[in-house]
Amino acid sequence: MSAKVPRNFRLLEELEKGEKGLGADGCSYGLTDGDDVMMSNWNATILGPPHSAHENRIYSLKIYCGASYPDQPPSVHFISKINLPGVSQTNGKVDLSKLGRVSQWNRDFTMEKILVALREYMAHPNCRKLPQPPEGSTY
Amino acid sequence: MSDEATSAPERPSSPVPEPITFTVKASNDSKFSLSLPPTTTIADVKAKLVELSEIPAERQRLIYSGRVMKNEETLETYKVQSGNTVHLVKGAASNTTASAGGAAPSTPAVPRLAAGSGNNPLAGLTGARYAGHVQLPRPEMFGPDGGMGPPPDPEGIAQMMSDPMIQAQMNEMLQNPQLLDHIINSNPVLQSMGPGARQLMQSDLFRQMVTDPATIRNMARMGAGANIGGQPSFPAPGQTDNASATEGQQSPLPQSNAQQSQSPSLGANPFASLFNGSAATGAPPNLQTLFNMYGGMPLGTPPAAGAGTGSPPAGGEQPQQSQQNPMGANPFLDPAAMQLLQLMGGVPGGSAPPPGFLSGLLGGMPPAAASPPDHRPPEERYAEQLRQLNDMGFFDFDRNVEALRRSGGSVQGAVNQLLGG
Q1: Where would I find the UBC core domain in this sequence (chain A) (predicted)?
Q2: Residue A68 domain-assigned?
Q3: Does residue B204 form part of some domain?
Q4: Could you say which of B53, B68, B90 is where a domain stops?
Q5: Is A139 contained in some domain?
């Protein structure tokens, strides 16, 4: 049994990965405010997957990691408007339970994993051709 | 690592700032190392990257730490640290949105297409991602010598378009801005329409229109009707004050009766008559008023029946038709839309090939290209075909769906299966 990584160590790990660009293609994330000692508020972008209505678009998101992260999943909101099942059309909140790979939250999951899952979902045959709101519009 | 996170705010803003050495990672996996003072603006960074990445500055999007970097900000603003990585992404040229920040959208960049696709945006459709989904073209599509003959006939197109896979693909094509450019640029008429054409083709309504088999059939009939020596096949519904149409209103009734008996939807389609009426008068402004009238016409108006056909199926079909018909909404008030419709229907000349626009669109499409798998539920996916099967008297939903699946969505194939099996 490996030791449980405490919240802040885990978030620092994720921060470094995000800043160094070691993460997956098409996703980027970092702290909203570098002074935030609790590392709660994060910004993220997802580059629209190719061959979809999202191609060439950059979607901005905000992620909030509560005190119980990573035992509890973070809350994820789209800032850029997007037409995607599971994303609230009023405030952009992502319903993680609808997001296949991360629907069953596990404390080993990371923000990157959520972003990658979202990006994959955007390229899913059911979603990739959905008409999208004008680029640049926000919630 | 904790150093980096916490030292950021403490970095003193010294008068002689040390340059930051950071990596720029482009989407094609190439990396560039830049060493710049923290006061460098993002616009300057982009200017430096033009040579390295060969991406014009106005198409560059820099992303760091989950944020799109704005041109007027500096590296300092985003607290870029030495050793960190900034992502470089190629955005759309016409992007004037917030993500572009202060990017100068005034100079339209030369479209840069993905490597390997040359200058043909259709090349993507033949790519490997379609491998394995090849739907063979019907034998009729080929001429006697095996080549592609003349553009497919309207019925063929309509049949093709009733295939959900093709529909999905058309949808996808129309969503691709590069392809739209290609289509618009290759057609002088569309070109002369200016930005209106683009806007129109991108509208959902238009997309629905060109992918709806019923509409296509109707358009084909319009075209065919226009070819009958300019004799209108049916008067415009609700048309009362149009002097030019009076001859058309009275004389061809027997003919329209005949046509109606063989195809109720023609009689019920107000557009066929609208177009034919205008072909007779040759006055496009008229057309517009007609459309206005149609737009304002209540669904239950009985023009078809009132014209003396007395054919119950036609009368009964009408409200349904106009409800379903996506053309019923008001894009007709848009002059650009009118122009495009005339173009497609070949109306003013009365001799152009019926769905010329569509044939062009489809003609340019590699015949073997097929769309990726469709995961919609069968009742949605085959809605149109199921309706047709129902009309033909096949009421067993499960069997219909199964037959449609086996036939790849072809109604004819499904009927053969249902009768044979």
Answers
A1: 6-139
A2: yes
A3: yes
A4: B90
A5: no
Question: Average pLDDT for residues A50-60, to the nearest whole number?
Answer: 89
Which domain, by its residues, includes A81? Answer: 7-123
Residue B314 within a domain: no
Q: What is the CATH number of the domain that holds A108?
A: 3.10.110.10
Based on the structure, what is the number of domains in chain B?
3
Best B25, B55, B61, B67 member to test A by mutation, with max A CBs in 10 Å, is: B67
User: Could you tell me the residue range of the domain that residue B395 belongs to?
Assistant: 378-420
Contact B66 A29 (CB under 8 A): yes
Does A115 reside within a domain? Answer: yes
Beta-carbon contacts below 8 Å between A and B: 105
Q: Which of B90, B108, B134 is the last residue of a domain?
A: B90
pLDDT tens, residue by residue, B42-90: 999 999 888 888 888 888 888 888 888 888 889 888 888 888 888 888 8
Interacting residues of B348 by C-beta distance below 8 A, sequence separation 6+: B278, B279, B282, B284, B342
Q: Provide the β-strand partners of residue A63.
A: A42, A76
Predicted interface score ipTM higher than 0.95: no
Residue B172 contacts A where some CB pair is shorter than 8 Å: yes
Closest CB to B9 among A35, A43, A135? A35
> Which of A22, A34, A45 shows the shortest C-beta gap to B66?
A45
Cross-chain residue pair B67–A43, CB shorter than 8 Å: yes
In this structure, is residue B68 part of a structural domain?
yes
- To the nearest whole angstrom, how far is the Cα of B262 from the nearest Cα of chain A? 38
Residue A97 lies in a domain: yes
Pick among A16, A65, A132, A135 to test the B interface (most B CBs inside 10 A): A135
B345 located within any domain: no
Helix orientation angle between A111-122 and A7-20, rounded to the nearest 10 degrees? 50
> Rounded to two decimals, what is the model's pTM?
0.42
Residues A27-37 have pLDDT tens digits of: 899 999 888 88
